């Protein structure tokens, strides 16, 4: 049998996601190991993880509880179908998760990613409205600058132009309310901005345009992450909840980023004291170790489907890898780690120190805004005229050379470290960034 010879360092075959492929392959940045707060590069350097991977490694890297759980599960049960069959850890995990959310969010549907969680929540919302006799409610409302993954549902309700413009027709029956970013009034705000609660009333405009009887659900990120850390103004989310309640519209919180301790509470619904009808999660559910997502839904939504003959499928939706045994084991090990180390509330303990560190960057060259909440931060840079994103990308490359991993979106540096970060790590992170911003044009 002939074998295809592949050079071990051949980079060409892999089409990398959300990456400048040609730039990367001309000067690769390779991670070969990770532990705690650091990655290990192929040339032997330790790189401080300022972004928890991609907002996901909330418990840090190479955590013993998670590693052990996956190893044990692989030996015990490698795969079990989730269609008409089950395995114990799926039900154990669902019960533990349901206990973490405020009532009535007490049912869990498992997916494999944030993108799948979003599409699942949108489908549940549409199917629910039909189940209760509101079949005219087929319209979905997102928000400008929102990020809800890369499925067609997610990019349709999402509002990041670059993620939409090359893919033709989106889902029909989708509209968007305005974003909450108000640089003129809220620049350099510490925490929640004072101005902007009234932006929620843009939903009333959309409702009046389409008629409330046509709208199934509104989806927003409590804190918009991938678009550059847009913190909601005080009262904004409560006002959205009020408007949705007044018009029979479901409210979906996309907590793929804010879930599992990022704001110093288990979920953003706890932090803002606003309970939506559906919550999408992923990332921190397994601390990024095994792909997994979940959608939490209110009991009334679940019960609306539990009609008809008992042998009939209630929701024609799911994935081959829903509630995968290894993912469930990883999630249970992650929850154990969070509980044992108090990580779901640790961001609250560090929030003041983190906030001071983030805002110490306001006097650096080209900085036009700084934002923070919990253990999330953003440093917005003045774009280079005619070359948007170039300045922030230069900062990303220079930070990597100085052994710090950051995330950039447009001309915004976004920061979201593992929840195990120490004050000394925060000092290193921002001392390095200060040097980076002083060194780039």
UniProtKB/TrEMBL annotation:
Ranges that cross the membrane: none
Stored PROSITE patterns: AA_TRANSFER_CLASS_3 (PS00600)
The keyword Transferase is assigned to this record: yes
Keywords, alphabetical: Aminotransferase, Pyridoxal phosphate, Transferase
Record GO biological process: biotin biosynthetic process
Xref: Pfam families: Aminotran_3 (PF00202)
GO molecular function: adenosylmethionine-8-amino-7-oxononanoate transaminase activity; pyridoxal phosphate binding
Cofactor(s) needed for function: pyridoxal 5'-phosphate
Superkingdom of origin: Bacteria
Keyword flag Transferase: yes
Similarity-based family: Belongs to the class-III pyridoxal-phosphate-dependent aminotransferase family.
Protein name in the entry: Aspartate aminotransferase family protein
Species of provenance: Oricola cellulosilytica
């Amino acid at each position: 049998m002939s074998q295809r010879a592949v050079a071990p360092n051949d980079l060409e075959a892999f089409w990398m996601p959300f990456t400048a492929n040609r730039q990367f392959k001309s000067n690769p940045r390779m991670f070969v190991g990770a532990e705690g707060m650091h990655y290990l590069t192929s040339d032997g350097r330790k790189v401080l993880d300022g972004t928890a991977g991609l907002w996901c490694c909330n418990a840090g890297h190479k955590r013993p509880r998670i590693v052990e759980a996956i190893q044990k599960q692989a030996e015990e049960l490698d795969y079990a179908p989730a269609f008409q069959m089950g395995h114990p850890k799926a039900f154990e995990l669902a019960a533990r998760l349901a206990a973490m959310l405020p009532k009535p969010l007490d049912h869990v549907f498992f997916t494999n990613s944030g993108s799948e969680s979003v599409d699942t929540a949108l489908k549940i919302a549409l199917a629910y409205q039909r189940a209760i006799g509101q079949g005219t409610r087929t319209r979905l409302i997102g928000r400008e600058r929102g990020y809800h993954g890369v499925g067609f549902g997610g990019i349709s309700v999402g509002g990041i132009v670059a993620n939409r413009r090359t893919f033709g027709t989106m889902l029909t029956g989708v509209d968007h309310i305005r974003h909450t970013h108000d640089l003129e009034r809220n620049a350099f705000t510490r925490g929640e901005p004072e101005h902007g609660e009234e932006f929620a009333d843009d939903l009333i405009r959309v409702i009046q345009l389409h008629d409330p009887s046509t709208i199934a659900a509104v989806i927003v990120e409590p804190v918009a992450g991938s678009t550059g850390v847009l913190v909601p103004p005080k009262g904004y989310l409560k006002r959205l909840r009020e408007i949705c309640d007044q018009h029979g519209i479901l409210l979906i919180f996309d907590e793929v980023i804010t879930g599992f301790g990022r704001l110093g509470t288990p979920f953003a619904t706890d932090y803002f004291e606003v309970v939506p009808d559906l919550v999408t999660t992923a990332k921190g559910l397994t601390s990024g170790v095994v792909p997994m997502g979940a959608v939490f839904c209110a009991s009334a939504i679940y019960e609306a489907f539990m009609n008809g003959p008992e042998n009939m499928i209630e929701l024609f939706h799911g994935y081959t890898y829903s509630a995968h045994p290894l993912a469930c084991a990883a999630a249970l090990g992650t929850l154990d780690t969070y509980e044992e180390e108090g990580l779901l509330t640790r961001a609250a303990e560090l929030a003041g120190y983190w906030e001071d560190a983030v805002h110490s960057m306001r006097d650096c060259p080209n900085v036009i805004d700084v934002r923070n909440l919990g253990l999330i931060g953003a440093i917005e840079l003045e774009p280079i005229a005619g070359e948007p994103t170039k300045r922030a990308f230069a900062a990303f490359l220079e930070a990597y050379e100085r052994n710090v991993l950051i995330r950039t979106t447009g001309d915004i540096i976004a920061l979201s470290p593992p929840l195990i970060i120490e004050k000394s790590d925060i000092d290193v992170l921002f001392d390095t960034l200060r040097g980076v911003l002083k060194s780039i044009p």
